[in-house]
Amino acid sequence: MLIKILTAVITVAAGIAAAFVLYWVLNQFSEHLPGSWGRRIQPYLFILPALAAIVVFTVYPAILTVINSFKDNFSRNWIGLANYRALFGSSTFVRGTLFNTLLWILIVPAACVIMGLAVAVLADRLGPRGEKTTKTVIFLPMAVSLVGAATVWRFIYASEPKGSTQIGLLNAIGSIFHKGPVAWLDTSTFHLNSLLLMVILLAAVKSVPADTIEAARMDGASERQIFARVVVPQIRGTIITVFITVLITVMKIFDVVYVTTAGEFNTDVLGNQFWTQISTYFNYGAASAIVVILMIAIIPVMWYQVKHFQSEEAT
Questions:
Q1: Buried b vs exposed e over 75-111: b needs ≥16 C-beta within 10 Å?
Q2: Domain co-membership, 262 together with 134
Q3: Average predicted confidence (pLDDT) for the chain
Q4: pTM for the predicted model, two decimal places
Q5: Angle CA 272–194–254, to nearest 5
Q6: 299 by DSSP, 3-state: which?
Q7: Do the domain assignments include residue 63?
Q8: How far apart are the first and last CA of the chain?
Q9: In this predicted structure, what is the pLDDT of residue 192?
């Protein structure tokens, strides 16, 4: 354990020292340029390491992935659109993987935002102590990773054959009341975690000017009308940002599905199918094609997000 701690400390210290030396060298280079060139080029030199990292670790892999999607299993020979035809020609992929991913996209972001907003509005009506307690209770589960949480839920839903000892919490409780074991993971179910979004939305709700709410009450508006016509329009930007953030996260969901069902029982999604193509079938071409499909699907979402940010800055 001590060796691991020392390794981590040395790694962090070395990274900070390397960054300091790099920017010192860049600064010295800009200061030794003739005339005003140093002052002009200095900002670009300072952002050069970040741009280089983006190109090396993001842009280059993305281009390589697009190229490999037109190659065979081991990315050696060109096969054109064969990977895409094989994916979209498979009923299992279209009716299973794509359809499940679409369900996640349509249901999870909307449900998370609605539930998070509802809890935020209710928490806003609590006193200072109650609000702090609510936030504390909400943030405690955030210390658990999604993989850890998914593992816990897998054991909660675990089922054994009838007559055997049930290790799953739900079936163990059911056995007390003489209910047969239920294969919960075979059942289409949605599990949502919108508590963290509640904190973000709560901050937005609190930013609504109190005088506008009081003015609406003086005009005879009900609490429901105040919420729909006063509060929601003023926090629309935050709602859209939260929705898009959840949407992008859901589109590339992998860990929860992999840990709980590994894509079985008609629960497969694009992220898990990508891993299956690489780890099980060693089909790098099909895996690259799945990533390209995800990239194409995310582009309109990112475009809308950029346009939304621009409109927010303009107002």
A1: beeeeeeebbeebeeeeebeebbbebbeebbeebbee
A2: yes
A3: 78
A4: 0.71
A5: 5
A6: helix
A7: no
A8: 53
A9: 42
Q: Enumerate the H helices of 140-269 as residue ranges.
A: 146-157, 169-176, 195-206, 210-218, 223-226, 232-234, 236-251, 255-260
User: Position 142: which residue type?
Assistant: M
Can you tell me whether residue 294 is helix, strand or coil? Answer: helix
Higher pLDDT, 218 or 8: 8
Give the mean model confidence (pLDDT) for residues 13-38. Answer: 86
**Longest Cα pair distance anywhere in the chain, in angstroms?**
87
Q: Total domain count for the chain? A: 2
Decide: 153 and 140 in contact? Cβ < 8 Å: no
Assess if residue 284 is contained within a domain: yes
Q: Which amino acid is at 136?
A: T
Percent of the chain past pLDDT 70, that is, above it, reads: 80
Residue 202 has pLDDT above 60, yes or no: no
Q: 């054109």: which residue's tokens?
A: 80
* Per-residue b or e along 172-188, where b marks 16 or more CB atoms closer than 10 Å to that residue's CB: eebbeeeeebeebbeee
Q: Is 71 within the bounds of a domain?
A: no
In terms of residues, how long is the chain?
Answer: 315
204 CB neighbour count, 10 Å cutoff = 19
pLDDT given at position 187 = 53
Q: Which residue has the tokens 């962090």?
A: 12
pLDDT of residue 61: 92
Whether 244 shows a pLDDT value over 60: the answer reads: yes
Token digits for 36? 């005003």
Residue 299 is part of a domain; what is its CATH number?
1.10.3720.10
Burial class (CB in 10 A: 0-12, 13-18, 19+), 118: middle
CA distances from 289 to 54, 64, 92, 285, 307 (A): 22, 11, 16, 6, 28
Give the pLDDT score at 64: 93
Q: 31 and 123 share a domain?
A: no
Q: What is the pLDDT of residue 249?
A: 80
pLDDT score for 241 = 80
